[in-house]
Amino acid sequence: MDDPLRRLFRWRQSVDREMTSLMTDIETADRLYREFPAFADWPGLAEVDEELWALFVSRLGDSRAKASPADFRRAVEIVMRVAAIDTGAIEGLYSVDRGFTMAVATQCVAWQLMLDERGPGVRRLFEAQLAAYELVLDAVTKALPITEAWIRALHEKVCAAQPTYPVLTPQGWQDHDLGRGEYKKRPNHVRLASGGILSFAPVERVAEEMHRLVDEIRTDAFQRAHPALQASYAHYALVNVHPFADGNGRVARALASTFFYRAAAIPLVVFADQREIYLESLRAADEGNASPMIGFIRDRGLDTMLRVTESLSTAAGRQPDEIAESLVGGPVTSREAVALRLQAAIREELANRLQALSLPPPVKASLEMERQYGWSEVDGWRVPSSCVLLDLSRPGRLPLHAGERFHVLVSADPSARFAFRLMVDGSDDAPEVRLADAAPELTARLRDRVRMWIDRQLARLLEELRAS
Fold first, then answer.
1. pTM across the whole model
2. pLDDT by residue (tens digit) across 341-367?
3. How far, in Å, CA of 388 to CA of 350, rounded?
4. d(C-alpha 334, C-alpha 310), whole Å
5. Which of 118, 342, 357, 393 is the most buried (most CB within 10 A)?
């Protein structure tokens, strides 16, 4: 009788994937390989992002101090199980949705049966992936160094339920031995569905490149770096090398979790429905722009810290299904933290829009965070202690200026349908924002609204400057 897991892989072949066929000209593909950069060349993190991260770490620490050790272990276990179930779905091994993910993560009634119903072998795949995250947590707890041997052990663990992987040969798709815990023995360059080529390290260079990756991780600069930079760099470098025949993405996400566990006791959680933006950030890094990759990994860390914080704040007297609801996007009580994150998104979008505008000289733009003391309340809205300050100027004998302060206000009414309001000092254009659109992460719909609002404000300010 045919093995159920083998049938699963054959089903997987029909899924729309970026990597659809092996390169037939191996030598050409080998020459196309581009080495991953040294960590010294990896971009840094903006000061506002570091401050936002520190705020979320602080809030998580406060919640942990107030919670029982059992509640904290439970909250971390939930996000670890989320990471474990969705890491396989990202690779197309099976399909999930947020509700299914949280049912498995919180171990609701009949969650094992739900896994079995997803397809043959899915439960074994999940258990292997969960064991890999537990291996990462154990290594962090014991302060073990990252070595090539440990990374190979991580691959062996995450792929324990996968004896073979599909290979496209001149005779069609065939199942080849995976070689769990071993570097690849055959090239795994691929052709994208678009027709482009995705080239990874040639077989004979894998050991050399992995040795270089471990050396970069051991440098003083890397050890002192922000965890979002560490996680994004290690993840990208490993995927760029693609040292294993299969399972590289799963290993990369588990490896990146090492640095989040060290910094904030959380794993890297990437939901399956975030796959497209995740792959886009990797593609941008391939083209020499690592900022989207860093931003994506940073945001996933913020999301997970917020989920754990809110899980702890609602854990007392609540049932797992209620906790799952808050993790997926239910009521959030730390609205001030969400407002500051929305504020950071406004600053980032303003910077992107100004860069795209290419303002003609001598017009100049200045963008910074303006800080005041404490939060205040005006007309039923809480005003944060900081805002985004934009100044457009044209120097000369009579210097001209046009500037505004961009605020994110928080409703003082905890039951308000619209929890936030976007506001600038000189305009009545003040969109209101639902909590569900801003937490646990900013939705695509909200990002579009923010972009349009920013365009309206920029047009008004530039018109003021022109009229002057």
1. 0.72
2. 898 889 989 988 888 887 777 788 888
3. 9
4. 8
5. 342
Cα 338 from Cα 414, distance rounded (Å): 14
3-state secondary structure 285-335: HHCCCCHHHHHHHHHHHHHHHHHHHHHHHHHCCCCHHHHHHHHHCCCCCCH
Contact 269, 133 (CB under 8 A): no
The sign of the dihedral angle between the CA atoms of 150, 154, 156, 160 is positive
- The residue extents of the domains of the chain are 4-328, 335-467
Q: What is the pLDDT of residues 28-51, one digit of tens each?
A: 778 889 999 999 999 999 888 999
CA distance 388 to 372: 12
Cis peptide before 362 (omega within 30 of 0): yes
Q: For residue 143, give both structure tokens.
A: 């302060």
- What length does the chain have? 468
Cβ neighbors of 14 (< 8 A, separation 6 or more) are none
What does the DSSP assignment read for 210-269? HHHHHHHHHSHHHHHS-HHHHHHHHHHHHHHH--SSS-HHHHHHHHHHHHHHHHHS----
Give the CATH fold of the 4-328 domain.
Answer: Fic-like fold (1.10.3290)
The values of phi and psi at residue 129, to 5°, are: -65, -40
